[in-house]
Amino acid sequence: MTVRPASGTDIDAVAELWVQLAAEQRAHGSHLLAAENHAQARDLIGQYVHADGVAVTTQAGRTVGFVMFHTETGFYETDRTRGVIDNLYVAPGFRGDGRGSALLTHAERELRSRGADALAIEALADNAAARRLYERRGYAPHRVTFEQSVENDTHSKDDP
């Protein structure tokens, strides 16, 4: 198994995997629509590839996993440079052999080499498998997001 930086020829395959990731996350409470955001995701992935912020893992020439990452910049001065791992995904059937950990290691190493002295990654609260992986790797909760459904013209309060 290898992990390598993504190139322009990987964008379409990563975009397809991103759609799978978004679809799977719906089971964990994500509101993000998968197929409906394919074009936007593809454009964003292209930007990340251009900035050397995507790595992939392959099996028999097929892209089966990816990680996206960047060094955080913003409007405020901070006392740390934070590296952010935006997406980490391995296709079903290729999980459990260390690919996710290898992708995470690649992103962590790249972010450290770019000056990050704190690393951040998000997981949906209901995604126990992702949370276990990140906790095993030394990540701890830093910020908690609370959400409440509201009733409006398009949703009842009980809609997920």
TrEMBL record:
Give the keywords, sorted: Acyltransferase, Ribonucleoprotein, Ribosomal protein, Transferase
Instruction: Read off the Gene3D superfamilies from this record.
Output: 3.40.630.30
Give start and end of each N-acetyltransferase domain.
1-160
Answer yes or no on keyword Acyltransferase: yes
GO MF annotation: an example: acyltransferase activity, transferring groups other than amino-acyl groups
Q: Which CDD domains does this entry report, sorted A to Z? A: NAT_SF (cd04301)
> Which GO terms of the cellular component aspect does the record hold?
ribosome
A Pfam family hit: Acetyltransf_1
- Cite the PANTHER family for this sequence: AMINOALKYLPHOSPHONATE N-ACETYLTRANSFERASE-RELATED-RELATED
Question: What is this protein's name?
Answer: Ribosomal protein S18 acetylase RimI-like enzyme
Record organism: Halobacterium salinarum
